[in-house]
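User: Is it possible to get a 3D structure for a protein together with its bound compound? The compound here is PPS. I've pasted both below.
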Amino acid sequence: MSLSFATEKQVAVAAVRRACLLTSSVFNKLVKNETLTKGDKSPVTVGDYAAQALISSILSRAFPEDPIVGEEDASDLRKPSGKELKDRIVSLANEALTSELALGDNKDWGIGPGSEQTDAELLDAIDRGNYEGSSIGRMWTIDPIDGTKGFLRGEQYAVCLALIVDSKVQLGVIGCPNLPFDPKDPSKGTGCIFVAVRGHGAEQLTLTLSDPTPLSIPSTEASDISFLESVEAAHSSHSFNDRVASLLSVTRSPVRMDSQAKYGCLARGEGGAYLRMPTGVGYREKIWDHASGNILVEEAGGIVTDSRGQPLDFGIGRTLGENYGVIAAGKDVHPLILAAVQKAQAEEKAKAKA
Ligand SMILES: Nc1ncnc2c1ncn2[C@@H]1O[C@H](COP(=O)(O)OS(=O)(=O)O)[C@@H](OP(=O)(O)O)[C@H]1O
Ligand SMILES: [Mg+2]
Ligand SMILES: [Mg+2]
Ligand SMILES: [Mg+2]
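Assistant: Yes, that's possible. Here is the predicted structure of the complex:
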C-alpha cells in the first residue's frame, strides 16, 4: 500500500485554504500600484507574494527539512522601492496566518492566533522557494496564484501546492476560489479545493472543507470531448488544438480557462481533455504550473503525458525541460488524442518543409 501522507495532506489543505481566503479577499481591495511586472513581462500582485509567504511559512514550520520550489522570490521587495508593497504583503500574510478558523488551526504549523511573523521571516519564507529542484528526495512546489491574469480579471485562478518525492508527485492540492463547486447545482456555491494523494484517489472539498467528493473521469467518446485550453494565446497554441479537434471530429468549442482549474475540471468529468502545446520555441513549462494537476488527473483515473507520450518529469529542476507540450485526458481517449497530436505535428513539419 502506498504511503497516505496524512499529515502532509492536512497541512497542505490548511495552507491552500488560508491562501484562497487571502487571495479572494485581496482581490476586492487591490489597488493599482499593488501589481508589478516581472522580467518576463508577466504580472505579480501582493496576493501572489503574500500567498507564497503564507504557504511557505506554514510548510517550513511543519516540515523544516523540506526544500521548496516556489514561483515568486522576494528580491524586488527587499529594495527600498519595494517597502510599501512589502508592508502590505506582511500585513496580509500575518492576517491570514493568525486568523481563527474552525478547522485547520495548529500552533505546531505556525497557524492560528499568536502566529505572527516578522518582516524578515516572511521575506525569507518567500525566498525559501528558491530551491533549484532535484530528482532525489522530498520537495514542495508552490504556485501561490496560478493564472495571475485570470485573478486580475476576476475569473479563474488557482492556489497550487504539491509534494514531489524522487521526481514523482505524491500529493497535490489545487484551491479554486472562483470555480463553482458543482456547475449543475448553483446552490452549492463557488470555491473548491481539489486534493489527490498517490494511490489514494482524488477528491474535491468546499473552501470550508465540507462535502468531500471522490472524483473520477468518466469514459467518453473522443468526438464528445471539448478541449480545456489556456486563455492566453501566447501560453498554448489555440490553432494547433483546433487542428487536433478536427482530426478527432470534435465539434464542441474549446473551453478557455486560466490556471490549473482546468485540471480540476478535467478530473471531475468536465471537458474531457487538457491540451497545451507550445506556441514557439524557448519557453520551458514550470513544475509549479503542472505538479498538482498531474497527480489530480492521474488519481482521477486519467493519463498525463507530453506529445511524445512520455510522463512529465518533475525531477530535472524548476522546469519540465524542453517543451513537448502536455496532454491530459481520460484513459480511453488519451491514446486517440496523442495520435491526433502526433499527426498534426507531422502535418506541420511537412508544411514547413514544402
Ligand atoms: N510563453 C508561455 N508559454 C506557456 N506558459 C506560459 C508562458 N508564459 C507564462 N506561462 C505560464 O502560464 C501560466 C498560466 O497558464 P494558464 O494555462 O493558466 O494560461 S492562461 O492564463 O489561461 O492563458 C502562468 O502561470 P502564473 O504565472 O502562475 O499565472 C505562467 O507560468
Ligand atoms: Mg506568474
Ligand atoms: Mg502558474
Ligand atoms: Mg503564479
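The chain has ten helices and 14 strands. The chain has two domains: 6-214, 227-353.
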